[in-house]
C-alpha cells in the first residue's frame, strides 16, 4: 500500500501549517514591502508641513501689503504713488524670509513643492506689478519682480519665480485695474482711466502673442478681455459726458512698455 509521500500528499512526519501562521507570514511580508514606502510618505508630509509653516510669515506680509495697496481706492490720486511705494517697501521685507523656505526644499526639487510657494509668489507678483504701474506707468519685467521679492528667476536651488507664476501675477494685477478706473472717475480723476485703458490694452496685445499651453493660464488670459472692455466702457462714458481729457501725457508707446518683459518669460507657458 502506498505511503502519503508516495501518493503525493504530505510526508508522514510533516507538521501542517495553520491558517494563523500563514496570515502572520503574509502580514510580515506586506509590512516589509510597504514599510519603507510609508516611512517615505510620512517624511514627505512632514516636509510639506514644514514648508507651509515657513511660508506663514511671508503670507502675513503679503496680506499686509495687499491691505496697504487697497487704500489706493479711497485716497486722492496725488497719494497713489506714495501708497504704491509703501507697498513695495513692505513687500521687500520678505527677502530674508525665503532662506527659511529654500533650506527646506531639496536641491533641484523646487517644482515638486511649488504648490506650497506658488500661490503666494503669484499674489506678491500681482502686488508688485500693480504698484510699479502706479509709480512708473509701466509693466514690471519678471527680473524686476524677482528682485523686489528676493527670489531667483532661474536656479537649480532655492525659490524661483517661474514664468507661469509671473504671467498669472500680472493678470491678477490687471484684474484689479477696472475697479481703480471706476473709482478714479468717482473721485474726479479723469486722466487715470485713460492711462489704465492704454496699459490694459498693451498688456492684452502682448499676451495675445503668446502660445499659452497652460490651461489655467489660458483661462486667466480670457479674463483680460473682460477687463479691457470694462476699461473701454469707462472711457466711452467719459467721452459721452464730455469729460475725456485726451491729455498728451497718456502713454502712446505700448510696445516699449510691455514687449520686452513678456518676451523674457518665453511663449510656452
UniProtKB/TrEMBL annotation:
Biased composition (Polar residues): 249-269
Location of the protein in the cell: Cytoplasm; Nucleus
Signal peptide segment: none
A Pfam family of this chain: Translin
Main location: cytoplasm
Region of interest (Disordered), ranges: 247-269
Keyword vocabulary terms for this entry: Cytoplasm, DNA-binding, Nucleus, RNA-binding
GO cellular component: cytoplasm; nucleus
Entries under InterPro entries matching the protein: Translin (IPR033956), Translin_C (IPR016069), Translin_fam (IPR002848), Translin_N (IPR016068), Translin_sf (IPR036081)
An annotated Gene Ontology molecular function: sequence-specific DNA binding
GO biological process, one term: RNA metabolic process
Domain of life assignment: Eukaryota
Xref: SUPFAM superfamilies: Translin
Family to which the UniProt record says this protein belongs: Belongs to the translin family.
PANTHER family for this protein: TRANSLIN AND TRANSLIN ASSOCIATED PROTEIN X
Full protein name: Translin
Amino acid at each position: 500500500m502506498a505511503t502519503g509521500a508516495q501518493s503525493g500528499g504530505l510526508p508522514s512526519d510533516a507538521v501542517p501549517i495553520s491558517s494563523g501562521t500563514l496570515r502572520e507570514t503574509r502580514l510580515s511580508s506586506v509590512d516589509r514591502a510597504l514599510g519603507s514606502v510609508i516611512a517615505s510618505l510620512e517624511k514627505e508630509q512632514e516636509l510639506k508641513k514644514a514648508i507651509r509653516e515657513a511660508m506663514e510669515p511671508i503670507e502675513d506680509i503679503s496680506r499686509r501689503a495687499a491691505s496697504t495697496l487697497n487704500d489706493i481706492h479711497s485716497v486722492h490720486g496725488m497719494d497713489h504713488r506714495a501708497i504704491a511705494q509703501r507697498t513695495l517697501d513692505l513687500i521687500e521685507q520678505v527677502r530674508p524670509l525665503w532662506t527659511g523656505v529654500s533650506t527646506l526644499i531639496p536641491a533641484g526639487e523646487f517644482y515638486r513643492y511649488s504648490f506650497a510657494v506658488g500661490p503666494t509668489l503669484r499674489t506678491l507678483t500681482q502686488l508688485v506689478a500693480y504698484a510699479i504701474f502706479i509709480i512708473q506707468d509701466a509693466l514690471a519685467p519678471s527680473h524686476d519682480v524677482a528682485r523686489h521679492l528676493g527670489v531667483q528667476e532661474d536656479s537649480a536651488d532655492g525659490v524661483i519665480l517661474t514664468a507661469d507664476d509671473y504671467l498669472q501675477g500680472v493678470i491678477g494685477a490687471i484684474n484689479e485695474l477696472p475697479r481703480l478706473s471706476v473709482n478714479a472717475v468717482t473721485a474726479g480723476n479723469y486722466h487715470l482711466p485713460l492711462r489704465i485703458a492704454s496699459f490694459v490694452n498693451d498688456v492684452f496685445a502682448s499676451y495675445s502673442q503668446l502660445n499659452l499651453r497652460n490651461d489655467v493660464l489660458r483661462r486667466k488670459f480670457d479674463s483680460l478681455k473682460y477687463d479691457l472692455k470694462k476699461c473701454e466702457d469707462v472711457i466711452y462714458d467719459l467721452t459721452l459726458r464730455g469729460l475725456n481729457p485726451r491729455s498728451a501725457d497718456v502713454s502712446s508707446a505700448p510696445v516699449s512698455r510691455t514687449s520686452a518683459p513678456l518676451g523674457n518669460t518665453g511663449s510656452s507657458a
